Structures are given as C-alpha cells and as structure tokens.
Amino acid sequence: MQKAAAGSGIQVGPVRETPAKTSAKEMATLQMEGTGPSRRCWGCSAPGNAGYPILIDSVQITPDPARPGQVKIVLTAVVLDFEQWKNEDKPHA
Asked: How does residue 46 score in pLDDT terms, banded at 50, 70 and 90?
C-alpha cells in the first residue's frame, strides 16, 4: 500500500498496525496517513498484490490548511486471514 501511494505522488506519513481480531478472521488492521495534491489522492492506484485479501475499511480526506491545494488522507485497511475464510462451513441450501 505504501508503494502504491508513493508511486501516485503521495508523501506517506505514519503507518500503524494493530493486532488481529481472530474472531473477525483478520490478520491485521493497518492505518496509513499521507499528504499530497488532491488529484493525486483521488488517482491513487489499488494496493496491488499483497498475497492476502485487503479490505479498505475507511478513507478520510481533509484539506491541509498549511498547504493550499494539498489534502491529508487517512486510510484504514484490514488484511483478512484467507485460510480462516476458506475453511468456513458453508450453509446448506
């Protein structure tokens, strides 16, 4: 995700990882902050192939009052534990 953001011209700031919620079949939750021109933030490409399913949980975009034309972006993503989802019992119809 950091490479995709940086490749789109966004200055990546702090990245935080929180422990997984095994009951929710997650591996980790990531929160990434960055700043950049508003057009770059809207055009940021997909996170790419991380080897695990990634679910974008929330995106917050706010203007950066210190820099006209720039925005701050906070993205929260969940990395799902595919093995737990794959082995889940399916309902019978």
From this structure: low
